[in-house]
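Think of the structure tokens as a kind of shorthand, similar to the way a musician reads notation: each symbol stands for something richer, in this case the local conformation of the backbone. In the example below we present two proteins back to back. Begin with the first one, reading the sequence and then the tokens, and try to describe in your own words what changes along the chain.
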Amino acid sequence: MSAPGTPVPGTRLPVSHAPSEASPFTGLVPGLRRAVGRGLAKVTGSAAGPYQSAILRIGFSLVWLLFLLREWPHRAELYGPDGSWSFALARRLIADNHAFTLLMWSDSRAWFETVYAAAIVAAALLLVGWRTRTAALLFMVGVLSLQNRSIFVGDGGDNVIHLMAVYLVFTRCGQVWSLDRRRAVREATAGRSGGADPVGIALWTVLGTALVAASLVGRLTTGWALIFWACWGGQAVWWAVRRYAPGEPRTVLDIVADVVHNGAMLVIAAEVCLIYSTAGWYKIQGGRWQDGTAPYYPLHLDDFTPWPALSHTLAGHAVLIMLIAYGTVVVQVAFPFALFNRRVKNVLLAVLILEHVSIAVLLGLPFFSLAMIAADAVFLPTGFLRWAGEQVVRPLRPRREPPGAAIDPQRSPDATEQAAAP
């Protein structure tokens, strides 16, 4: 027998280890999983930036509406049969680039007047937010039809409107500040949410009839026909689910709509950053911007000086012109990077808006400036937008109670709207 404490042959002795330090990657996987879960919940749980998407809707529809109304006396020269860009030239170009435009369906003056008037109506409907999904699609059709007919008409703002008209179709831009929102609150308050909606059914039927007619006569290409038929069928599915299956199917459709909306808002934000970054970097490569004299020259062009005395006075200050040139380049290049800091972003955003206002006044480009300001609105803080909206609505809001009367907070209009909010 072996003495006590003597190891038995063939047995493994326990090895003592010094306390090891915890790995820095120990909590990485759980933390990453939680972050991904929060991100997915945010993307699928709600439509991001309802006030930002609403101001985009209002801004771009207003700019396009004002432009069409201002150019009403000259509409035939810009987009119609009296323009220098003839119907034959437009047809040859569209045969190559396959752009969409209703104005290529006929060269008659009556058809042109109908399309132009329809574009005005669509812009007005989108502005007030009436049947926003349909109005956004019709707004896009109006913008593409006119701009693709005469591609040389515009001042740069038309390109921004062209892009944003497509992106707005994928957003839920009628959640606030719209007639759709007002109708939804009224129906929820009255307990009639998900009703028959005869107006919507009639609108859907009329547009479906027009789509059938256009398809039968072969006016739509395969790609555009698929897009329009998908939108038309999607509206029917949305109404049917809202009407007859308000439970889980409605939740699934809401999730899909939120994901599409959030993706479109991300694309819009990226587009604005791309516009400013490319403009800034191209300016850096120009010799006139490098020596700080670039703003001097447009201030002496007759086509860009609506106020000659003001423009010439500004152009006479060399130091100020140099500061404007260098400041413009710095702000445009730095803006995409400033998005990582809220305060810096807001300061540069205010500078950019002021710059566009100056361009509208000094260079006589109001619609370009308004289009860019509308695009910048995607980055405006929600608190500021809500405050601005309240300032606009407050004078128009009727007084529901006589002065000095007590209002039950549970029955106030704001409380009703919050209770009925989806």
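Once you have a description of the first chain, move to the second and do the same.
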Amino acid sequence: MSAGERAKAKAEQVVGRTVRKAAHALRKETLAAKGAALETRGRMRGAKERAKGPFER
């Protein structure tokens, strides 16, 4: 997993978590769902990159 891809995945997780928590505080459920989706996408990107790592040698 390259450092750039790892950074992108972590950035998506952090931004998604921040959006989700802010939206919950403002009672904006649609925006909270979008933040949760972004956070999940970051997690899946990280998992995909971790799974790819050992096989690409």
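Compare your description with these statements about the second chain. Residues 16 and 35 are 4 Å apart (CA to CA).
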